Write a sequence for this structure.
């Protein structure tokens, strides 16, 4: 697949890194020659220096041969125009644009992005995606990541094993015997900077980050098995009233009716703006590093504190301060993930990476074959893929055992008709089956081919 990416920032770089694996031909455009040199030295991409929306630059980038164009520059307007040029002059069929300014995304103007008006097939808003990811995580106390699968019947939950429990130091193959009524699978483990798909003899260690997949109704019991106790005081403190903070507060008001939310914003004008857009959320104006203000906001009663300013260092300090003052769980937004291990070791419970969330959202519209959703974990070393076996798929007639590859591919779930199975039993793949696959990055192309259309159906 030929992919042209406009913008070599963190999102553009990470997306290029994921797509450069395998047979994809990736070209990346940016105005910074130095930034492009750094990227091309680390991954196999073709760098093009220039302004991403200029026709001659897109021509040099090979847009006329592109299967996909992704515009993720720092400018919404450049992204919009670049997609228009890619469509009208080079007939690129799939175009994705990152749009950050919420004014463009106001429901009153949603018709702006209809195909009749703008040549963009998919709009990605980092603020909206991050807010949705955070609102899902808020619902599961102790989780730093919650992803819905199979129309929300199944969840993938990311937790840090900071509590001693029966599950720790036990070979994974023996865990079903300890909890016979619980049906879940350990999808992957992050330990010492490495993310991997575990085998049956592997054990979960204290402070491992673990992603498990389970039926949504069993999530509370599984969290208790990991020794995370249920908490019913649903109080949220959001620190930072920027685009992400405001969008998150709106999301909570809309979908989490039994939550009590407060938000702290330092800029008085911005605080007024935030208050005008919220109905039940209490807005406080002040410095999130002010201990007196945190106590005024009753930080010790907050179940979850979420720091989402645009300054990583402020987010880190505010989270640590909130924990010191009695906050139960602190989640911190980080743009620079180089800090992540240090921040976790200092006591912050969860790290939010807007770039990883944005890339994961984009990948859902990039992967080939009958892949209904794709979720990137950590730095993309593992992907959770929801695939549908259609009559034309190469997967039809294969068994679960044929698809499983130790340490590389694992069938974690299967939905057949109304029935959903976690770690499905021995069976042959049929038309209409929906599979949840845990896939190592080096095996993604195999899965794409497996669920692609057979040549005999073309």
């Amino acid at each position: 697949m030929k992919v042209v990416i406009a913008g070599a920032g963190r999102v553009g770089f990470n997306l290029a890194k994921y797509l450069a694996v395998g047979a994809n031909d990736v070209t990346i455009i940016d105005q910074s020659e130095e930034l492009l040199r750094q990227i091309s030295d680390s991954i196999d991409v073709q760098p093009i220096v220039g302004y991403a929306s200029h026709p001659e630059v897109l021509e040099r980038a090979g847009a006329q041969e592109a299967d996909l164009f992704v515009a993720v520059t720092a400018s919404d307007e450049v992204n919009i125009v670049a997609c228009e040029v890619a469509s009208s002059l080079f007939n690129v069929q799939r175009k994705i644009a990152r749009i950050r300014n919420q004014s463009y995304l106001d429901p009153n103007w949603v018709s702006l992005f209809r195909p009749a008006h703008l040549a963009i097939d998919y709009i990605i808003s980092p603020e909206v995606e991050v807010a949705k990811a955070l609102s899902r995580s808020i619902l599961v106390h102790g989780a730093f990541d919650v992803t819905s699968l199979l129309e929300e019947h199944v969840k993938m939950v990311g937790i840090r094993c900071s509590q001693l429990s029966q599950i720790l130091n036990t070979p994974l193959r023996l865990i079903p015997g300890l909890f016979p009524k619980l049906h879940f699978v350990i999808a992957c483990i992050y330990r010492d900077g490495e993310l991997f798909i575990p085998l049956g003899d592997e054990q979960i260690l204290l402070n491992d980050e673990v992603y498990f997949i389970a039926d949504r109704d069993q999530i509370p019991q599984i969290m208790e098995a990991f020794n995370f106790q249920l908490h019913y005081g649903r109080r949220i403190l959001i620190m930072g009233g920027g685009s992400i903070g405001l969008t998150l507060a709106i999301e909570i008001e809309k979908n989490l009716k039994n939550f009590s939310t407060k938000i702290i914003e330092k800029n008085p004008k911005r605080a007024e703006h935030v208050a005008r857009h919220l109905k039940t959320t209490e807005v406080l104006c002040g410095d999130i590093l002010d201990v007196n203000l945190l106590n005024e906001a009753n930080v010790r009663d907050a179940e979850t504190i979420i720091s989402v300013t645009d300054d990583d260092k402020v987010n880190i300090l505010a989270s640590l301060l909130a924990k010191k003052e009695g906050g139960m769980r602190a989640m911190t937004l980080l743009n620079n993930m180089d800090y992540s291990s240090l921040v976790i070791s200092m006591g912050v419970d969860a790290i939010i990476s807007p770039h990883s969330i944005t890339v994961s959202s984009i990948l859902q519209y990039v992967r080939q074959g009958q892949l209904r959703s794709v979720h990137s974990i950590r730095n993309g070393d593992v992907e959770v893929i929801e695939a549908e076996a259609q009559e034309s798929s190469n997967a039809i007639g294969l068994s679960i055992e044929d698809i499983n590859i130790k340490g590389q591919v694992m069938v974690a779930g299967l939905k057949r008709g109304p029935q959903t199975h976690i770690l499905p039993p021995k069976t042959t793949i049929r038309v209409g089956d929906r599979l949840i696959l845990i896939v190592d990055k080096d095996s993604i192309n195999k899965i794409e081919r497996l669920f692609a259309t057979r040549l005999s159906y073309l």
